[in-house]
Amino acid sequence: MRHTKLAIAAMALAVLAGCGGSSPEAGDQTVRVKFSSQVSFGDSLSDVGTYNVGTVAALKGGKFTINGDNTAINATLTGRNWTELVAAQLGLPAPCAAMTGLEGDATKGFSVARVNHAGCYGYAQGGARVTNPVGPGNALTGSALGALTVPVVTQVANHLALSGGKFKGDEIVFVMAGGNDVLFQLSKLSADATAAGNAAGAKAGVQAFIASLVPQLAAGATDPADAAKNILAVATAAAGRAGATLTTITQESVAVAGIQPGNTAVRDQAVYSPMVAKASAAASTAGAAAGATAGAEFAKAQGPVLVEALKTAGTELATLVKTEIIGKGANYVTVNNLPDVATTPSGRGQSAETRALINAMASAFNGALTAGLAGESKAVIVDVFWVSNDQATNPGPYGLTNVTEPACDLTAPKNPLGTSLACNGSNLKSGDISHYSFADEVHPTPYNNLLLARYVSRSLVTKGWL
Fold it and tell me: How far apart are alpha carbons 2 and 455 in whole angstroms?
């Protein structure tokens, strides 16, 4: 099996090399199908500059990789993503962003009017999901960036509106989406699980605080049992009031404890403060344990919901390709499935349970996508999941030197955005990062984009289109 994998990897690496050497230009091949243009729909992995405006442009960013022509540093650092590299191989003009703009914080230079660019067919946008208009980075998520995140369904509709409601039939169409549906759902799950954990932890903490404080306050009374009953009633009532805190519970509990027979000394702060400290420690321990358990249980219970959501997104994308792309005249459609998100630096940083969930989500999406396009002769599905997984576990044949860490320094002030969107030759990590797999936590370097371009090209050769 390993020999088979190595052979396939070598074939993928050789496809473009045989079309003009190892140069990413490689545009001198005689292709079997002469395409008139290239149209691409999707997300950040295919975005050729939607957000290359305002502060992002000033930071010399704009694409989700290592930006700029840094071939003087290393020949592989071209600043181009896979759609640009494939266009060059096909002898087509460099793709340009169909729409540019930002709708974020104007004081930070993230508010730039939307502009539609005639003759540009790079519709993919960072943060875009399959059908939902609110993706990562969108202003409605609270992000200062204000990414447009126009979903793929709208990207296709926008193209049809400009092309007379149909595709010409001689263009090559690329579709790659779903990653942001995974990331958005995971982010929401994390926030919701945290909220559930915080609520459970707060409740358990209060209960533990009262359970510890009451007997301590009652211990000096003439009748500790009777005093404890009275203090507990007051403490419980105090905890039930809106806006209750451990401080307000303490105040009311100490007040009633001090009027219990033989217990006046407990009113002294020096007497009750150590009791409060002990109760607070008990609250912290109990709250943390309960919160962690509740958060984990919530996440586990919601996992199947997320898997189903990705299955739906995969089905929606397949339907969109069949009805609105192929159904509207496109004859050459390449659909990349979801890569192995769990092996990105971001994915590797998650718990084993979360990585398993990510894999289940990707599998559900890819399975639905494949099933939805089964038998469709005008579409080819590129198994990016397989090749990205193989790269992560067997990097050597692909020429990758690091598959676990970002090549970009994502810390401020070197990178104010903390993502590859603002990464360039001036804020890379030290050393030779040219053959790193990832520019940031999830996005590929130009070299890894070249690997993807080669793998896509291999699929086009197999299909007989190249």
Answer: 18
In the chain, count of helices (H) and strands (E)? 12, 8
Q: What is the pLDDT of residue 28?
A: 44
* Gap between the Cα atoms of 50 and 99, Å rounded: 6
Residues 45 and 378: their CA atoms lie apart, in Å, by 23
What integer pLDDT is reported at residue 35 of this predicted model? 97
Based on its alpha-carbon atoms, the radius of gyration of the chain, rounded to whole angstroms, reads: 29
Tell the residue number behind the tokens 């992995």, with chain if given.
45
Residue 278 neighbours by CB under 8 Å, 6+ apart? 212, 216
Beta-carbon neighbour count of residue 27 at 10 Å? 16
Full set of structural domains in the chain with CATH: 2-17+34-193+294-463 (3.40.50.1110), 194-293 (no CATH)
Contact in structure between 439 and 420 (CB atoms under 8 Å): yes
| Amino acid letter, residue 248 | T
Give the per-residue pLDDT at 30: 60
DSSP summary character for residue 134: -
Single-letter amino acid, residue 105 = D
**Predicted local confidence at residue 31, as pLDDT:** 67
Find, among 11, 406, 346, the residue nearest to 183 by Cα. 346
Q: Can you spell out the DSSP letters for 38-91? A: EEEEESTTT-SSTT-SHHHHHTT--SSSSBS--TTT-TT-----HHHHHHHHTT
| pLDDT for 19 beyond 60 | no
* 392 within 8 A of 120, measured Cβ to Cβ: no
pTM assigned to the model: 0.88
Query: How confident is the model over 225-280, as pLDDT tens digits?
Result: 999 999 999 999 999 999 999 999 999 999 999 999 999 999 999 999 999 999 99
Cβ atoms 421, 61 nearer than 8 A: yes
Q: What is the DSSP string of 383-418?
A: -HHHHHHHHHH--GGGT-SEEEEESB--STTT-TTS
Confidence of residue 33 (pLDDT cuts 50, 70, 90): confident
